[in-house]
Amino acid sequence: MHSQLYFIVAIFSMASVTFIIRFMPTFLPKKLLNSPLLLAVNKALPLAVMILLILTSLAWLDNNQQFNPSKLLIAQILALIFVLISYHMFRQLFVSMIVGIVCINLFLKILT
User: Fold this and answer.
1) Domain ranges of the chain
2) Which residues cross the membrane (predicted)?
3) What does the pLDDT look like over 42-73, one tens digit per residue?
4) pLDDT band at 105 (very low <50, low <70, confident <90, very high)
5) Contact residues for 67 (Cβ-Cβ < 8 A; gap 6+)
6) Which of 31, 63, 76, 81 is deepest in the core (most CB within 10 A)?
7) How far is it between the farthest Cα atoms of the chain?
8) How many angstroms separate the CA atoms of 93 and 102, rounded?
9) pTM for the whole thing?
């Protein structure tokens, strides 16, 4: 019962923080929202979040929790390079996603 209460409190606390953050622009004055610091954070945050998502999804560790540049990591990095190149060339997110999926599978097949 204790773990269920923990999960319920965790879910409600995350929901309340999300609710407060999403509705904060409604309550804050426009002068504060147009501050240079907040505009710079707003501009840089999506890129930072994407970089963090990419770095945490890479397979840095092997099964023994030690750094080992495995075939999966090499395939992921190569596929990521191809995704960046395709997005730079075509500026189409959907095409880059397809290129990434094809490349990761192709590189895994080549490397194994």
Assistant:
1) 1-33, 35-111
2) 5-24, 44-61, 70-87, 93-111
3) 888 888 888 888 888 887 766 666 666 778 88
4) very high
5) 60, 61
6) 76
7) 57
8) 14
9) 0.59
Strand, coil or helix: 67:
strand
Containing 76, the helix (H) or strand (E) segment is helix 71-90
Show the tokens assigned to 106: 């192709």
What are the C-alpha distances in Å from 83 to residues 22, 45, 48, 94, 99?
31, 21, 18, 10, 6
Say which amino acid occupies 110: I
Determine contact, residues 25/33, Cβ cutoff 8 Å.
yes
| Tokens standing for residue 98 | 């397809």
**How far is 104 from 110, CA to CA, in rounded Å?**
10
Report the pLDDT value the prediction gives residue 70, as an integer from 0 to 100. Answer: 78
pLDDT at 35 over 80: yes
Average pLDDT over the chain, rounded to an integer: 87
Q: How far apart are the first and last CA of the chain?
A: 46
Would you say how long the chain is, in residues?
A: 112
